[in-house]
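[step 3/7] inverse_fold.run input=structure_tokens len=181
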């Protein structure tokens, strides 16, 4: 099973942005495998693998049809959570501030900003997240000391970001084909 996780991690590390469905499906597989392993306890390996493949396939299919929607929703919740937490932290020292009324407003405003930023910065966000997921999947399945895994993680993360960013910059610089005559 470690070999499969390392292979998926390498694919995420190198191709996560360019193949969004692979990124979502690979992460779905890894999460499904880990969840099934922990939630079901001692079960046959084929059953856990079947569940992981099912979760990965469902995630990949959903990502094909709902890419921008899913990214926007994730950005909304991340931005809202951050803005709400910051508003409460900033206003907690002020006795006259009503944080229970300001927190939902901050959540909505931060959520809207987070959704817009996430959708607008989709490619850089995918490069970073897929490189993080790939490096993590590889390092969790390589038998090394924890300090060795830490160094490997940093090297893989930087390598994955550089490979994907260079591929991304090449696709952005390629001029569109001329219109047919």
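[step 3/7] decode complete -> sequence:
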């Amino acid at each position: 099973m470690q070999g499969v996780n390392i292979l998926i991690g390498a694919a995420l590390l190198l191709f996560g942005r360019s193949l969004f469905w692979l990124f979502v499906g690979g992460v779905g597989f890894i999460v499904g495998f880990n969840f099934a392993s922990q939630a079901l306890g001692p079960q046959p390996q084929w059953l856990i693998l079947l569940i992981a493949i099912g979760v990965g396939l469902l995630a990949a299919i959903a990502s094909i049809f709902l890419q921008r929607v899913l990214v926007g929703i994730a950005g909304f919740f991340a931005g809202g959570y951050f803005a709400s937490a910051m508003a409460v932290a900033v206003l907690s020292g002020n006795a006259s501030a009503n944080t229970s009324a300001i927190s939902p407003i901050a959540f909505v405003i931060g959520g809207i900003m987070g959704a817009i930023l996430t959708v607008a910065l989709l490619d850089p966000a995918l490069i970073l997240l897929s490189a993080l997921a790939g490096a993590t999947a590889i390092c969790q399945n390589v038998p090394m000391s924890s300090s060795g895994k830490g160094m490997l993680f940093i090297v893989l993360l930087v390598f994955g970001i550089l490979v994907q960013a260079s591929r991304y910059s090449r696709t952005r610089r390629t001029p569109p084909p001329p219109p047919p005559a």
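[step 4/7] annotate
DSSP finds six helices and no strands in the chain.
Residues 2-71+111-172 form one domain.
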